[in-house]
Amino acid sequence: MLVLLPPSETKANGGDGPPLDLSALAHPDLTETRRAVVSALVDLADDVPSSLRLLGLSERRTDEVERNAALLGSPTMPGLLRYTGVLYDALDVGSLTESERARADERLAVGSALFGLVRGTDRIPAYRLSAGNSLPNLGTLRGVWRPVLEPLLSAREDLVVDLRSGAYTALARVPEALTVRVLTETQDGQRSVVSHHNKAHKGELARALARVPQEPRDVEDVITVAKDSGLRVERESEHQLCIVVPAA
């Protein structure tokens, strides 16, 4: 099973690992594309105004450009610790047991605008780049990643649970993947889509899928794991589940 997570705009600072080594990351078929995107992002950082404009940042966020400028020499840490925010707070890999963490590293991966795919043990630096950005001489990241990342993911024969957001889904479509959406339900049964806080519930699902000793192999297994963890889950179609939470 592979659980695809969205990245986060926010990243943890620092790290205790050596500088980025692209050849040491999982999925070596992505190395040349990773090298091209990393190089373009570092070069862009030489031009702060252009970096702010192309990355969609305010003038107060020059620190993010500085991160990109130092990307090749910055300390690294495992990907599942680098990303922060609502989903990763709910995932809470730091509280997993040793065996659960090993399963998380094996089963979870982060869709990344910079690296394409980040596995749990991949050591990466802090950076700023989003799926909707474009880079000089490369164009849109969708155009860069889709030709190499989509075949890699589509070739998998095991279960793929896709928890990515729309922009990251566009980097590589996985037609047979199981997708999940989150709805709130009022006392009278009316439902509406959850926006920001859907990440927390997806993080809870990812945590449950990482912790369970027996690896889920089909949709029914995922439903069972989710319900056992306390989530209310419904199957909406062959390839889509819905997590239902009470409206506030």
From TrEMBL:
Pfam families: H2O2_YaaD
GO BP, sorted A to Z: response to hydroperoxide
Sequence segments annotated as region (Disordered): 1-20
GO cellular component, one term: cytosol
PANTHER family for the chain: PEROXIDE STRESS RESISTANCE PROTEIN YAAA, PEROXIDE STRESS RESPONSE PROTEIN YAAA
Protein name according to UniProt: Peroxide stress protein YaaA
Source organism per UniProt: Allosaccharopolyspora coralli
Gene (UniProt): yaaA
